[in-house]
Predict the structure.
Amino acid sequence: MRNVKTKTNKQLRYVIIRTRSAGCFAGELMSQDRDIVVLKNSRRLWFWTGAATLSQLAIEGTSRPDACKFPVMIPVHTVLGVIEIIDATPAGRASIEGVPVWSAGKGFGYGYGAGCGSGSGSGDGSGECL
């Protein structure tokens, strides 16, 4: 990978990145050094639907924004182990930024996490701990 110098806000590329083990993120590319990327205004793409692949999400966005799980935006985020960087179109960016902020429920016995969802067949495997 190549180095990308830090640029002004108007010049930053909006990208989706995929990592070896930390998942996928979308944000403005501030810098890159080999497999280390610094994103501005990033969101973790924890779960998406309405786009078959990250490539489709980057180009077209999602057709089901209310079903996606993209948590709160992080002002500056250093991400290690980046294996893919996909440039997003303005339409893809607008769609990602338009997804409502997802957060876990509050209170005892409610939320998402290990062991809280299961599925097989054509279902999405989502679920709640009750």
Q: What stands out?
A: The longest strand covers residues 24-33. Residues 9-97 form a domain with the SH3 type barrels. fold (CATH 2.30.30.100).
